[in-house]
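Archive maintenance. Older records in this collection stored only the sequence; we are now back-filling the structure field for every entry so that each record is complete. The fields below show one back-filled record exactly as it appears after the update. Entries are processed alphabetically, and HTH cro/C1-type domain-containing protein is next in the queue.

ARCHIVE ENTRY
Title: HTH cro/C1-type domain-containing protein
Organism field: Streptomyces olivaceiscleroticus
Length field: 111
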Amino acid sequence: MSHSRWKLAREKKLAEGHVESPETTAERAENRLAMAFAKTVYDRRTELGLTQAEVAERAGLAQAKISRIEGADAVPTLPLLRRLARALDASLSIALDDEHEEVAFIAHSTA
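Back-filled structure field:
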């Protein structure tokens, strides 16, 4: 079944009055945040024209770790977030609430 069908099936169940468990809702929120962070890292890295290996070297990490982060397969710690922000020459902004996650790298000015 494709992802779009999963989404449609979920929406259909919700429209019929099905209520997700709190655990499922929490897991869905964690996945959204991981995906948002992964996309933000990838977008900033490609904006800078860097490879995963180059970001890894700048951050003192293995290339595989950057791959896992960009694949939303790793949960970064606060020190790792700082290392990534430095490696990507940016500040990291994360805003969270119940229904919305926003992750952004804000480039340091070159002036």
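Update note: The longest helix spans residues 22-48. The longest strand covers residues 90-96.
Entry marked complete.
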